[in-house]
Amino acid sequence: MDLVEQCCRDFTSLEMDSSNIAPPGLASRESKGIDTCVWYGVAAFTKCCQDTWDWLRIDCGSDTSYKDANGDTWNSDDDYVKTGDNKQVAPSSYSEVEQLNTLRVFSEQNKNCYTLPTPSSTRYLVRAMFWYGNYDGLSKPSIFDLEFDGNKWATVVTNMNNFTYYEMIYATRGDSISICLARTQDQQFPFISRLESIQLPDEMYPQMRRDMAWFNSYRCDYGANDTILGYPADPYNRIWEPSIPPGLRPVTANFTSIDVTSVNDPPDSAIITAVEAQSSADTIDLSFGFGNVSHLDHVEMYFTEPFLQTGETRSFSVIVNNNYVNTTNPEYQNCVSIGANSLSFGTLNVQLVPTNESTLPPIINAIEVYTLKGWSGEPCLPNDTIWQWLKCSTDDQPPRVTAICLSGYGLQGALPDFSQMDALEVIDMHNNTLDGEIPDFLGKLPNLRILDLRDNDFSGYVPRTITDNKQVDFK
């Protein structure tokens, strides 16, 4: 078995100010440059298409299970974790969100794990939420690791003023998901305030590979002023942050519901608001920061025409990381989504460029950005992490990536510069729609043995660094 066969066989926290939170579960917020706002699920917007029997809600630290004001059941921890102690936040830190006033603290074992049942093999949206609330009176919020099924999810950095949450979409390989809290520093005790999982329909996010864990990095409700949308406005429990990027004009549609929507079923209340460019000749430029790391992202963009206008045309091209994705003509009261997978280094860039025949400016209603687990950060840690598309060394400390196997992943655009990954021995990215020139740095990777770029849309010549490299088997 060659390395390709062996390999291919087998980000971002959000912080919320907890001092001014309105029921049924959400909050004022400070995150990613967004002004303070209230997270508020309006029942009038609910589609009620999602049964809640397959939604697990745990109010961590609660002594009993109960029903909230919406009639939804919140469970205590006892059936899901066997360790830890129930605590309450300090009275001065109380929140109107009931589940944030209690927490489960783990001060004895280094690693403590919840077992969440997953009766279906479909994907689940999982969210973990943390609010220190000075429960111990020490004013020393802790730092610890969050893990899922033995894989590192995030380093949780808590603070005195905000609560933090992390969210992912994940298809378990068994009948449960293990969510663990791991102590990484002396006297830094892990805790958790709220833990949820909800089953997603099979047809949602078709371009996101099911055998991957995708971390939500951004989800923006463009044109909204101060309302963070969550359940029940979104029956799938997604959180949509309001955003009006500088230089763009907020727009509100003259309708209140969508006739035809995307397979991802975004909430109508997120789609009736939008931002548009100042004129029909202007381009919308959107940037999403990730630090100076390479990352594989899935971006999902949502569009609708907010007004029924006779004799006008709105048409624009969607460009992701300088690569053409599609051209769209938004339709009145119909929501269309356009998705793309893209490799990036540092910033992910999205452009909406008006076509020549457009008389109206480009517009966007909402966007979601997910990042593939393992591509950024420390992909080989912890050591027992196993991903079908990734192979790591066992001799190096810390372990290093030696093989990338992303055949048939729907990758689009040009390859970013990942020349810093100089331990790579295998790169298999055949059967995608990658384009542009084949990068010169690939032939300079000192340990590369196999490079498979077949069945893509590359242009130009193969660099001589590759063709003259006798140790590289190029396909």
Automatic annotation (TrEMBL):
UniProt main location, coarse: membrane
Superkingdom to which the source organism belongs: Eukaryota
Malectin-like domain segment(s): 58-371
Cited InterPro entries: Leu-rich_rpt, LRR_dom_sf, Malectin-like_Carb-bd_dom
UniProt entry keywords in alphabetical sequence: Membrane, Signal, Transmembrane, Transmembrane helix
Pfam families in the cross-refs: LRR_1, Malectin_like
UniProt-annotated location(s): Membrane
Bilayer topology term: Single-pass membrane protein
Protein name: Malectin-like domain-containing protein
Organism: Hibiscus sabdariffa
Lineage: Eukaryota, Viridiplantae, Streptophyta, Embryophyta, Tracheophyta
